[in-house]
């Protein structure tokens, strides 16, 4: 089971140094924002903020880091996938509350280990088909290498690429959350899942 801490740590790996990218795109759409540029720009923003090891941060800097890290994540898509048919039974307000709780938990854990931002990531290839993309990377933190694959989608409404899943060592993060949430829903119901998330936020 992928824990929230591991989940948020995985998100950080997306936003560090891109040493190599080999995009594979047979019908490049020039009107779409470039994925490579998106990753590089975000990496540069983070690198400028975190500075060298031992740097102390103001509340404003921490909040800005949190925003940069999480802006690329499509929490609504992840929540819908994790809740499955339960998502369709919720009202708009209920959906918004769930997504807010889910994203808040991840955001609050995203700054727990700033050294993760200093990891060296090699972007091995980007396979893009229309409005979806798969980004394959190899992240190295100290002597540990971890293959991480990102599934991305082009969001028409906001005209940007967003992450919908991370596959870490062949384990889908979104899939793990789906199994975790569905297990709670089957055994105790959706209200119990919501109560658990509320407690984590508190």
CATH architecture designation: Roll
CATH superfamily: Tgt2/MlaC
- Structural class computed from helices and strand pairing: alpha/beta
Helix content: 40-55%
Text of the CATH class? Alpha Beta
The number of helical runs is: 8
CATH topology: Nuclear Transport Factor 2, Chain: A
Percentage beta strand? 15-25%
The rounded distance between the terminal residues' Cα atoms is 22 Å
Order of helices and strands: HEEHHHHHEEEEEHH
Q: Note the quaternary state here.
A: single chain
CA-atom Rg in angstroms: 17 Å
**Total domains, how many?**
1
Low-pLDDT runs of 5+ residues are 11-30
Describe the structure.
The protein has 202 residues and is α/β, with parallel strands linked by helices. The chain has a single domain (4-201), classed as Nuclear Transport Factor 2, Chain: A, CATH 3.10.450.710. Helix content is 49%, strand content 23%. Strands 1, 2, 3, 4, 5, 6 and 7 form a seven-stranded mixed β-sheet that branches. A hairpin with a 2-residue loop joins β6 and β7 (171-172). α6 crosses α8 (190-201). It is globular and about 45 Å long. The model is unreliable at 11-30 (pLDDT under 50).
């Amino acid at each position: 089971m992928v824990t929230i801490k591991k989940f948020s740590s995985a998100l950080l790996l997306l936003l560090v140094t891109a040493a190599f990218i080999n995009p594979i795109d047979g019908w490049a759409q020039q009107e779409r924002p470039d994925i490579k540029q998106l990753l590089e720009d975000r990496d540069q923003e983070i690198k400028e903020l975190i500075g060298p090891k031992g740097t102390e941060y103001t509340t404003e800097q921490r909040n800005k880091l949190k925003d940069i890290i999480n802006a690329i994540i499509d929490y609504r898509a992840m929540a819908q996938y994790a809740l499955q048919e339960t998502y369709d039974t919720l009202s708009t307000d209920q959906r918004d509350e769930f997504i807010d709780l889910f994203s808040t938990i991840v955001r609050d854990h995203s700054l727990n280990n700033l050294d993760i931002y200093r990891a060296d990531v090699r972007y091995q290839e980007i396979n893009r088909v229309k409005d979806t993309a798969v980004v394959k990377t190899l992240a190295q933190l100290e002597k540990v290498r971890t293959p991480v694959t990102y599934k991305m989608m082009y969001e028409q409404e906001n005209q940007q690429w967003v992450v919908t899943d991370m596959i870490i060592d062949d384990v889908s993060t979104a899939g793990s959350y789906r199994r975790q949430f569905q297990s709670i829903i089957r055994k105790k119901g959706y209200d119990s899942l919501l109560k658990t998330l509320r407690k984590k936020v508190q």
